[in-house]
Design goal:
By secondary structure, the protein is of the alpha+beta class. It contains 8 helices and 10 strands. Strand 2 and strand 3 form a beta hairpin. 25% of the residues are buried.
Length: 369
């Protein structure tokens, strides 16, 4: 067959087939459109009916809600009334309970007062028992303080305090010394505090005769030791060297500086103290002892005055006879310029603060009669 005819036939059959297919597709599309249209009408109908039903249902529900609200309001009113009644009853009960609590508080306060009274009574009993232990008791009755500072105690204290004070001052002399003196030519100048030394109280208390005392006698001896030691320290702390001519060789020394040289010995009383009355006036010594004693012994005025007078008298005598010596002074001679100025005074000198300046002094013996 000729190829051109074959192509014409194929084109004709294709055209027929395409036309039939298009008609079939159109019919199906029309049917589907009708189905969709019918479904849309049904949906519209159902929607209209549903809207009507929904409106009726909403109206019915609103009515029911109104009825429920009214019933709830009634019940709420009744509940509020019940709550108010319960609150009133609760307040009344609470008031009653508060009253009961108040009564209980009163009872507690009463019990507290009773307990406080009992505690005070026990405290008083304990004080009485302690007094009984401290002072002893007479017979089988209550405890009464019977201990007293007897004449035997007085004699024992005097017998112990005299050697104890003597020993303490002897120990003090071994280490007492002057320091920080200012030497100008022949004069030595020392301000308050230039005399150093240990306190006496510890040395007084360790004396064997003080250690052998007991009871009130020991308390009295310790009070005397403390009072006299305090006043001795006040005197010592006020001692000065008021320009005493201790170094005559330093007036015109032939050299650029003066080597250490001892002072001219002088009585200790010449080293004036602004607290000397604390050591040599009996009333001030007695006041210091009285302040150091416990309350049960500070009223022993006659004995305290007796001891204070003996200590003050012994100190006054001792200050007059004790010699200050071997205070080694030295210093520069700034004007020394030989051969034109072959000698010159010491200016701005000082001393060697070594113990021994009062080592040669006699003992302080209390004159207690």
């Amino acid at each position: 067959m000729i190829p051109s005819l074959r192509r014409n036939r194929i084109s004709k059959h294709a055209t027929e087939f395409a036309g039939q297919t298009a008609k079939s597709v159109a019919k199906q599309a029309t049917r589907q459109a009708e189905t969709v249209s019918n479904a849309g009408q049904k949906v519209t109908h159902l929607a209209s009916g549903g809207a009507k039903n929904a409106s009726a249902a909403v109206h019915k529900t609103a009515n029911q809600a109104a009825d429920v609200g009214a019933k709830a309001a009634n019940k709420a009113g009744q509940g509020a009334a019940n709550v108010a009644q319960m609150l009133n009853e609760g307040v009344s009960n609470a008031a009653g309970n508060v009253a009961k609590v108040g009564n209980a508080a009163g009872n507690v306060a009463k019990v507290g007062n009773d307990v406080s009274g009992a505690v005070q009574a026990q405290a008083l009993m304990m004080v009485e028992q302690m007094s009984s232990i401290a002072y002893g008791s007479s017979g089988g009755g209550g405890a009464t303080p019977t201990a007293s500072f007897t004449s035997a105690d007085q004699a024992a204290v005097i017998d112990a305090i005299k050697p104890a004070v003597k020993q303490a001052v002897d120990m003090w002399k071994l280490s007492a010394h002057f320091s920080d003196l200012n030497i100008m030519a022949v004069s030595a100048i020392g301000t308050p505090g230039c005399l150093d030394g240990p306190e006496l109280e510890a040395h007084i208390r360790i004396h064997p005769k003080i250690q052998s005392l007991s009871g009130l006698a020991r308390d009295m001896a310790n009070g005397i030791a403390e009072g006299f030691s305090d006043n001795f320290f006040l005197w010592q702390n006020g001692v000065t060297v008021p320009g005493l001519p201790w170094y005559p060789a330093f007036a015109a020394f032939p050299g650029p500086s003066a080597p250490p040289m001892p002072n001219v010995p002088m009585p200790l009383i010449s080293c004036v103290s602004n607290r000397a009355s604390r050591l040599v006036v009996a009333s001030e010594v007695a006041d210091a002892i009285r302040q150091a004693l416990p309350a049960n012994l500070s009223s022993e005025t006659a004995f305290i005055n007796r001891v204070a007078a003996g200590l003050a008298l012994g100190a006054s005598t001792w200050l007059g006879v004790a010699q200050v010596m071997n205070v080694l002074g030295y210093g520069p001679v700034p004007s020394f310029a030989p051969p034109y100025v072959p000698v010159g005074p010491v200016v701005g000198g000082t001393n060697i603060p070594a113990p021994g300046h009062l080592m040669a002094a006699p003992s302080l013996n209390p004159i207690i009669v």
